[in-house]
Structures are given as structure tokens and as C-alpha cells.
Write a structure and sequence with these properties.
The protein has 210 residues and is of the alpha/beta class. It has one domain: Ribonuclease Z/Hydroxyacylglutathione hydrolase-like (Metallo-beta-lactamase, Chain A, 4-Layer Sandwich). The chain has five helices and 14 strands. The strands form three sheets. A six-stranded mixed beta sheet has the order 1-2-3-4-5-6, with helices on one face. The protein has a six-stranded mixed beta sheet with strand order 7-8-9-10-13-14. Strands 11-12 form a two-stranded antiparallel ribbon. α1 crosses α2. The protein is globular and about 45 Å long. InterPro entries: MBL_Glyoxalase_II (IPR051453), Metallo-B-lactamas (IPR001279), RibonucZ/Hydroxyglut_hydro (IPR036866). Its cofactor is Zn(2+). Pfam families: Lactamase_B. This is Glyoxylase-like metal-dependent hydrolase (Beta-lactamase superfamily II).
């Protein structure tokens, strides 16, 4: 099993593709540049099974319907952000872009921590609110990696000054959810390079003294 990071759009939001040896794949946070993303996945011969959203801010959802149009796959998002996909104020696109970014409703609403089995993939869904009310992280034990969205970055943490953000809740999510995973776990964040939990525990200034 392997993953690829594909930065998209003006904010260079990381879309990820998790690929099984049988060429089926999962797409995480297809944020924008849908034509580019669809073309790349098609060129690799991969077969998407689903779109998994870590949260529903505009820069993480903009290409969702492009992916759906090409492959007709289901979309997963946490129930706390089910209305954000079609609301340009809630997802921030009007506020930050001055334009509406809307996508069709999700097919599945995540509620509570659980294990998702999609094709050959098995992922633990961790509720990690704080950056936004419905932020989740997806842990793939087989890969030894967690798709953290905008919860934890290399050397930083997610912003909490947007609607529904809560700094204390974010730190609690990181410590009680992410940092309980094996310390060698690779963190695949929504922006910037990958890191590891061990590295963030040792060097991330936002986690010291919590």
C-alpha cells in the first residue's frame, strides 16, 4: 500500500491518494483543480472507491464533485459539517475567496469513532475537533500513517479563529487522539510536508506545556 500527496490550488491544500496494490484507491480532501486531479489519477490507472473529507472548509472540498462526476463514488464527512458542503459562508469560500464554492451533499455522515472498511482498506476514524467542529483524522494502521487534515502540521497546529474553532479543544484532540497513536506514526497534514508524531512531540512549540 502506498500514498501520494498532491498539493492543489492557491492554498496548496494537500489531497492524498491512498493506493492498494490492486490499484483501488481512496481520495482524501480533493480541494481544487479537479481536472488536474482527475487526470492524474486516471493516468495512473487507479480506481477510486470513495472520497474521505477530514473537514469541510472550502480549500478541502472544491474538487469533490469533479471526482464524483468521473467515478460516481460516495463522499464521507462528519455529521457536524454536513451543511457546510453547500453553504459558502460555513465553508469559508465567500469570506476568503469572495466566491461561492459548493458541492453536493455527502453520501455518508460520520458519527462517533469507528472503523471504516471500504474495499480492501481499513481506517480508524478519530474525532479531532478544534480546527472545525467536524474535523476528523483517519488512521491507517497497515500504512502506519494518519491523515490529519488541518489538526496537526509539521511544527504547527490548525488555526482556531474560524467559525466553530476552539483552541483548547484542538489541543485536547491532538493529545487525546493523535498522540495516543504509535509515536512512529507518519502524519499526513492538510498543508505542508509530512512529519511524525515523535518529531512533533519533541519539537512542535504548540504542544509543549499542554
Amino acid at each position: 500500500m502506498k500514498w501520494e500527496r498532491i498539493p492543489l490550488g492557491s492554498l496548496q491544500t494537500n489531497a492524498y491518494v491512498l493506493v492498494h496494490p490492486n490499484d483501488t484507491c481512496l481520495i482524501f480532501d480533493p480541494g481544487s483543480e479537479g481536472e488536474k486531479l482527475v487526470s492524474y489519477i486516471s493516468s495512473q490507472g487507479w480506481k477510486p472507491l470513495a472520497v474521505l473529507l477530514t473537514h469541510a472548509h472550502f480549500d478541502h472540498i472544491g474538487a469533490v464533485d469533479d471526482v464524483r462526476k468521473r467515478w460516481n463514488v460516495p463522499v464521507y464527512v462528519h455529521k457536524n459539517e454536513k451543511d457546510w458542503l453547500n453553504d459558502a459562508w460555513l465553508n469559508g469560500s465567500l469570506l476568503f475567496m469572495g466566491q461561492e464554492i459548493k458541492v453536493k451533499p455527502a453520501d455518508y455522515l460520520l458519527d462517533g469513532e469507528q472503523t471504516l472498511t471500504i474495499g480492501e482498506f481499513s481506517l480508524r476514524v478519530l474525532e479531532t475537533p478544534g480546527h472545525s467542529p467536524g474535523s476528523v483524522s483517519y488512521y491507517c494502521e497497515e500504512l502506519g500513517a494518519v491523515f490529519s487534515g488541518d489538526v496537526l502540521f509539521a511544527g504547527s497546529i490548525g488555526r482556531t479563529d474560524l467559525p466553530g474553532g476552539n483552541h483548547d479543544q484542538l489541543l485536547q484532540s491532538i493529545h487525546e487522539r493523535l498522540l495516543q497513536l504509535p509515536e512512529e506514526t507518519v502524519v499526513l497534514p492538510g498543508h505542508g510536508p509530512e512529519t511524525t508524531l515523535m518529531n512533533e512531540m519533541e519539537t512542535n512549540p504548540f504542544l509543549n506545556g499542554f
